[in-house]
Amino acid sequence: MNIIERSDNVKIIVGLGNPGKEYEKTRHNVGFSFVDYYLKEKGFDVNWKKSFDGEYYSTILFKEKVLFIKPLTYMNLSGICVSQFLNYYNASIDDLLIISDDMDIFIGNFKLKSGGSSGGHNGLKNIESCLSTTSYKRLKIGISKDKSMNMKNYVLSKFEKDELDNLNHVFHDLVNVMDDYFVLPFSDLMSKYNQKNR
């Protein structure tokens, strides 16, 4: 398949979003956007490949074999792609990190979680259904919440310029979070960064 063999231990990082030009820079695509941002910041010349209903890029970071994935199933069926990659690599659920948007967190903030409910997020709901567990690691990136708008319309709306500025700031901070993800126990990662949120 690529530099990562099926027998290897592999970290699987999944950014959630919807494929297609019309969804670029929408709130629901924050997972896609941050994965792209992180790989660019790390200096990778990424050539995405397609398999298992998703795009993937494999590399080595901090001596860990890592697979970055962007499901192409559309948000509500994200678990189909995630489960196929996990099954192919016989990967542990402990080595899975899902990066998603969160309507209940303000733009400029984020939260690390080791499990729990989907919070109404359809992508996470489908992942939980396909994996038959809620015990997987998440990085939730705030997209704020405008309660005057219909939820579906809101998550598919584009960011305003000032919101994009805030998002870029949090993406910059999250590069350090991701770097530490590869070297710290997840409980230590949560303790280090969650308390710094506003």
Q: Radius of gyration, rounded? A: 16 Å
Mean pLDDT: 89
- The shape is globular
The stretches of 5 or more residues where confidence is low (pLDDT under 50) are none
Number of strands: 7
Q: What is the rounded distance between the termini?
A: 42 Å
The major beta sheet can be summarized as: 7 strands, mixed
Q: Provide a count of the helices.
A: 6
CATH superfamily assignment?
Peptidyl-tRNA hydrolase
Strand order of the largest sheet: 2-3-4-1-5-7-6
Can you identify the CATH class? Alpha Beta
What is the element string, with H for helices and E for strands?
EHEEEHEEHEHHH
The CATH architecture can be given as: 3-Layer(aba) Sandwich
Q: Which structural class do the helices and strands define?
A: alpha/beta
The CATH topology turns out to be: Rossmann fold
**Residue share in helix:** 25-40%
Which strand-content bin applies to the residues? 15-25%
Number of spatially distinct domains: 1
Task: Please provide a written account of the structure.
The protein has 198 residues and is of the alpha/beta class. It has one domain (11-188): Peptidyl-tRNA hydrolase (Rossmann fold), CATH 3.40.50.1470. The protein is 34% helix and 21% strand. The chain has helices spanning 30-41, 78-89, 122-131, 151-155, 161-181, 186-193; strands at 11-15, 49-51, 54-61, 64-71, 96-102, 110-113, 137-142. The chain has a seven-stranded mixed beta sheet. Helix 1 (30-41) packs across helix 5 (161-181) and helix 2 (78-89) packs parallel to helix 3 (122-131). The longest helix has 21 residues, at 161-181. 34% of the residues are buried.
